[in-house]
Write a structure and sequence with these properties.
Number of helices: 3
CATH topology of the largest domain: Immunoglobulin-like
Largest sheet: 4 strands, antiparallel
CATH class of the largest domain: Mainly Beta
Distance between the termini: 88 Å
Structural class: alpha+beta
CATH architecture of the largest domain: Sandwich
Number of domains: 2
């Protein structure tokens, strides 16, 4: 057994990190053919995507907040059919900048869909949707019978 051989991989890694122009091509080769390298991102940036969504509940409603940065209100639709809430829209690629001038495209573009099955205690006629600063907030009010009630206890 030679002394110091365990440090050789670390030393070569340190040397590689001194010149990042050498590091990234070698690093990217690890992922070639697996569909996760930069070529995958570039080719698939214009396919369907799923925006992030938070859902929370209050005494009066269930609230969905969906992140839609860079999308206009007119490009989003909210519909209800057969107890299914569907949010649909599209983020379009900005064509005023030529695609070949980009070095990397990591943001998602194209159509998106989010669907949620509504619980039976939601009042569909009173659903509200608001769009502000890239956030879509959908408020799903509960029916009166579903709201929590305080029961008075009587002493006999």
């Amino acid at each position: 057994m030679q002394t110091g051989t365990a440090l050789a991989p670390r030393r070569s890694f340190r040397n590689l990190m001194k010149d990042p122009s050498e590091f990234w091509p070698r690093f990217n080769r690890i992922f070639e053919g697996l569909g996760v390298g930069p070529e995958f991102v570039e080719e698939n940036a214009l396919v369907a995507w799923t925006p992030a969504c938070d859902i929370y509940e209050t005494d009066k409603a269930i609230v969905l907040t969906v992140e839609l940065p860079g999308i206009k209100k007119e490009e989003v639709s909210v519909s209800i059919e057969n107890n299914l809430l569907t949010i649909h829209g599209e983020r379009k690629f900005q064509e005023e900048k030529k695609r070949e001038n980009y070095h990397r495209v990591e943001r998602n573009y194209g159509e998106f869909f989010r669907s949620f099955t509504l619980p039976n205690y939601i009042e569909p006629a009173k659903i509200l949707a608001e769009f502000k600063e890239g956030l879509l907030q959908v408020s799903l009010p509960k029916r009166e019978e579903a709201k929590p009630k305080q029961v008075e206890i009587k002493v006999l």
